[in-house]
Amino acid sequence: MLNEQIFHHSGLNLNFATGPRNGPALVFFHGVTRRWQSFVPLIPALSTRWHIHALDHRGHGQSSRAKFGYLVRDYVRDAVAFVQNQVQGPVVLYGHSLGAMVAAAVAAELPQQVQAAILEDPPFETMGPRISQSALLSYFAGVQPFAESTLPVGALARQLAEIPLTTPGKTGSIRLGDTRDMASLRFTARCLKQLHRDVLSPIVAGRWLDGFDWAAVSQKITCPVLLMQADLSVGGMLTDDDAAEAERLMLDCVRVRLPKAGHLIHWLQTDTCLRLVTSFLESLEISLS
Question: pTM for the complete prediction?
């Protein structure tokens, strides 16, 4: 059973869930617009052998809204402080999307503490200036007005389904509801109700990666890494070029491609994700000192 607590950092109250001490610390960092509950599909299986911590990023879930500071590097600062001061001791990190970039940066910053990292489809350059070349720009611009919504979840989900997604260079659009089922859109709606609208401003402006050099971060990571790459044709965000470069730069990286898996691997292919993650975790030689 998990309970929620507050970590105080730089004037912010950061909400996190934590479970029983059944092993070494395993810390989860979710993707942008989501909250720690994104990892509910994985937590029951992993909590039997690990001490789970799952953080709500600033501006997300039950964490404080920041007056400014929603670049990737701002989330990294929070996460480094959380791992150093709240979790303490040897730790394994699991991050999805934004959380994967955060996990990579924490691993680079705290090489003595971080024993391994699991990176699920980090977007890297896809979510930088390159965002203007994809349907992602229309998605984030489309959902931003619904952040902090007071609508009931069901009504909000139905409105989200009608958001038009467009790709530069292509004619026409498709509905968001044609790419996601309504159950998933209800979860998205619940997350958006707790999302600070300013979170999305640097993404839409193409400035989200300002001050974050993912290649330099990758080169500093010395621990074992599991890099899971989703399929671009069904919504994945990690390109082959970026994945290959990250794999080359990291000292000990296992890269696994997942054909036909969308960006949310842990939701869309939960069994496969758990198999890969468990195999990786059980291969580790964790130092508890």
Answer: 0.97
